[in-house]
Amino acid sequence: QVQLVESGGGSVQSGRSLRLSCAASGIRYSYCMGWFRQAPGKAREGVAQIGWDDSTNYADFVKGRFTISQDKAKNTLYLQMDSLKTEDTAMYYCAADVDRPCFDVLVPRHFGYWGQGTQVTVSS
To answer: What does the pLDDT average to over 34-53?
Structure first.
């Protein structure tokens, strides 16, 4: 049973940083993990993903500002968010899928397991 629990959200001013964490259990080999976000009234969108082999992929709107990483010993996924903008305000979700590598396209339908989300609010 795969379980994902996010933490680290909060309220910050634009230009500041936050680090999100996702504690994972039940995931062993050959997986893809990702971060998604959803703002009110908008569709859920992919932010970044990382595979078992540490390959990464980012949405264009976060390249150079966000960094996804993982600590396999701690079974934890991270999202370091720097230079935050007001438009980054959203609920952020950790997601995972198993028995496959990451695909080139980062879309919600490719992920079968989801956390409950953590809110990030960026003010000007």
So the answer is: 97
Q: What is the identity of the amino acid at 28?
A: R
Spatial neighbors of 25 by CB under 8 A, at least 6 apart, are 1, 2, 3, 75
Strands of the sheet containing 76-81, edge to edge, are 3-7, 18-25, 76-81, 66-71
Residue among 101, 94, 111, 81 nearest 35 (CA): 94
In sequence order, the β-bridge partners of residue 3 are: 25
Name the CA radius of gyration of the chain, rounded: 13
Mean pLDDT score of the chain, rounded to an integer? 96
Alpha carbon 40 to chain centroid distance?
18
80-92 pLDDT, tens digit per residue, is 999 999 999 999 9
